[in-house]
Give the backbone structure.
Amino acid sequence: MDDDDDIPQLSSHTLAALQEFYLEQQQREGMKTSQGFNQYSIGSIEEDWQLSQFWYSDETALCLAKEAVLAAGKGGRIACISAPSVYQKLKEQDGEDFSVCVLEYDRRFSVYGEEFIFYDYNHPLDLPENLLPHSFDIVIADPPYLSEECLQKTAETIKYLTKGKILLCTGAVMEEQAAKLLGVKMCKFIPKHSRNLANEFRCYVNYASGLD
């Protein structure tokens, strides 16, 4: 008796679909390790919704990155707090004269080496000694949660790091709180995400920006 007779057989269509799925996964993993892969492309590290991660669309990330470069000026320093897709887009800007780091809770971003700084908004000033106060020409921040507590604690980090300029991305519902904590005003520019969010999202700045 052939025991294989009792094993249910997959249809050729299902098998083909499964093979395609596994092939895509292998390609994704292979691309992450191959030298020819752009490790800074948005989506190279996938969103983790449990960490409230929602990446910007490519157009929005590029717009925010260009704004940051202009605001920082030649040789400027840029800090991205909980905004890894802007960091990734900044790293794609070849030939631009600036330095950047990403403060992020998700340790998957440690693949970016020394420019990655582990950051937990619950401990807003628990930062490495080499992150000196008021040492960044602009700080871009996108607090992970739409709560007063999260914004308040992230604001502590922003104010500690920035020389003055702030670019904040958060929900429209946080407008009053953002103005009170950071002195920022809502811009006309409306940021988009690669997946549509239920909450209306906006940008806020405390300087004359190109986002209006």
